[in-house]
Amino acid sequence: MLSIEHLSIEFSSKPILEDISFLVNKKDRIALVGKNGAGKTTLLRLIAGEYQPTAGHITHDAGLSIGYLPQVMLHKDGRTLREEVMTVFHGEDQARFIAEMDRTIIGLGFERKDFDRPCSEFSGGWRMRIELAKILLQHPDLLLLDEPTNHLDIESIQWLEQFLAASQSAVIVVSHDRAFIDNVTNRTIEISLGHIYDYNVNYSKYVVLRKERHDQQVRAYLNQQKMIQETEDFIERFRYKATKAVQVQSRIKQLEKLERLEVDLEDTSRLNLKFPPAPRSGDFPVIIEDLRKDFGNHTVFQNVTFTIRRGDKVAFVGKNGEGKTTLVRCIMSQLDYYGTLKIGYNVKIGYFAQNQASLLDENLTVFQTIDYVAVGDIRTKIRDILGAFMFGGEASDKKVKVLSGGERSRLAMIRLLLEPCNLLILDEPTNHLDMQSKDVLKDALKDFDGTLICVSHDRDFLDGLVNKVYEFGGGQVREHLGGIYDFLRTKKISSLQELEKSKPSNQPAISKTSGSKLDYAAQKAEAAAKRKKERLIADTEAQIAEFEAEQAKLEALLNIPENQTPDNFAKYEHVKHTIEQKLYEWELLSDDI
Fold first, then answer.
1. CB-based contacts of 470: which residues, under 8 Å, 6+ apart?
2. 482's torsion region: left (phi>0), alpha (psi -120 to 50) or beta?
3. Whole-number average pLDDT of the chain
4. Using N-to-C axis directions, what is the helix angle for 435-447 and 405-417, rounded to 10°?
């Protein structure tokens, strides 16, 4: 189908790919993997014909059609969504394609009301979906997909998996979404140090085989390095001894002829990144009741009621545009809203969003940016941490002002994770991380002893990390107990088979199963009583905080001898007693709930 023979390419005399060869066969589903900068996108662009190789060539069957979805593209305006997608049919009888086109567009997350909207109204992520729809509808012989899931929600990713499973196209995909490439590929090609390693297995099996190969390479490399060092020591020791001249010359020639082994020795898989201990917060960091958010005449969500307990790790999931980031911004007091939203006692929030990168000091280096916030033992591991997040070697000495948008986002993530907080809110934290970096972050989040809210479409990242899922859709927010795959199993039964009908029904914001009207009424009354107690706890925590602030002021006042009057001592004792009383009330309420 397609043959790559002795292919090499270099930029500015720097080799990217060196003498690589492999075949792509019909029905191949290939995951192209490797570190950022290894050459994955370069190889896709070579196959797509956008780059020409420095040496070697690519040949393919006559008439082979290729569909290429790049990470970044320029968009043209002037058409509606439907008109833009229909351009792929090139004047053919379009009526016979309408049903398939509708299924594809809806499968990728659009609604029917979007069909006649101008493409210029859609964000870059949604316009990327339009391009993906156009490519899929052409049914090319070979699909080249570069990070196709970066702008898709979970339901759209699952739809794409099902589409590719039924497709007759061969596929080469670059993705950091481990679950996605495991589900759609049957072969893995790794690019490392300009060379390729071809495994006839999916990604999970490749990881095991790759470790075995890497261990063998490291042993061979270290043995060769030991031999080279011993040979160089011999040459240096006897270089000027006439009796050893023949042996010295023999070993010099031996080194000149030696084919030096290369191996990627950077291995941060065992890096243990630990967050600073989280200051203890109240029992309920976030309490939300009857929350509603409108933008003009559009209601994003309404009747949202739930409580996040201290230590919860929760995921916000749902289609793009359903209000996940909007609710996060409400929690951060960045947006107005109707209803009740309370942040609990002593809650210290660490927030990651894309615009966090713009707050970095551009005149600092990468290392200085992290060194500024790192405290304790973690300071001895700064370079290891930077390496785990793709800032190894000379990259740590770059100024922030020369970093790309993705690099700035990763740096902002590292900086955030080193600052003490007890409520972490992460909005799509994995979009600019490779798999190894995601593993480091996920392990650290698992050990984080605070509370976590994570907005993400990355199932593998969320698996084993969260214990509760909040689903956004149809203006509602529904609570699902359990992990991300528990949620997905429920969704598959209820809606994923018919995505055209996947709009959530008009059910309460938090759905619970009940056996009868009486059960439901009892549960409703119990939930109302619980919410009332939670509000009382939150109010009590707020009062305690106010009195503790007053106590601190009085202590500072009494440190000055002339202020040590009976009246001031009496005020201090009164505040101290009130705090003790409020703490006692708080304990009773907490025990009761």
1. 306, 314, 315, 316, 317, 477, 478, 479, 480
2. left
3. 83
4. 20
Q: Cβ-count burial of 446 within 10 angstroms (0-12 exposed, 13-18 middle, 19+ buried)?
A: exposed
Tokens of 391: 């800032």
Residue among 128, 95, 100, 5 nearest 500 (CA): 100
500 pLDDT more than 50: no
DSSP string, 490-539: HHIIIIIT-GGG-SPPS--SS----SSHHHHHHHHHHHHHHHHHHHHHHH
H/E segment holding residue 440: helix 435-447
Q: What global pTM score does this model have? A: 0.67
Q: What is the largest CA-CA distance in the chain?
A: 104
Condensed to tens digits (0 to 9), the pLDDT of residues 184-235 reads 999 999 998 899 999 999 999 998 898 888 888 888 888 888 999 999 888 8
Q: Identify the DSSP state of 463.
A: T
**Do the Cβ atoms of 151 and 128 come closer than 8 Å?**
yes
Query: How would you list the strands of the sheet with 29-33, edge to edge?
Result: 66-69, 142-146, 170-174, 29-33, 187-192, 195-199
Q: How far apart are CA 315 and CA 453, in angstroms?
A: 6
394: pLDDT strictly greater than 70? yes
Across 25-87, the runs of DSSP E, i.e. the strands, are 29-33, 55-60, 66-69
* Rounded-to-integer distance, Cα 293 and Cα 323, Å: 9
Q: Are the C-beta atoms of 204 and 229 separated by less than 8 Å?
A: no
User: Using an 8 Å Cβ cutoff, are 147 and 125 in contact?
Assistant: no
- DSSP conformation letters of 240-292: T-GGGHHHHHHHHHHHHH-----------TT----PPPPPP--S-SEEEEEEE
Measured distance between the N- and C-terminal CA atoms of the chain, rounded to whole angstroms: 66
Interatomic CA distance for residues 155 and 322, integer angstroms = 13
Rounded CA separation 590/160 (Å):
46
Q: Is the dihedral of CA 502, 123, 405, 470 positive or negative?
A: negative
Q: Residue 193: its pLDDT value, please?
A: 86
- Nearest CA to 152 among 104, 103, 109, 101? 109
Per residue in 112-129, pLDDT tens?
888 998 888 886 678 888
Are 83 and 42 a contacting pair, CB within 8 Å?
no
DSSP per-residue string spanning 314-369:
EEEEESTTSSHHHHHHHHTT-S--EEEEEE-TT--EEEE-GGGGGGS-TTSBHHHH
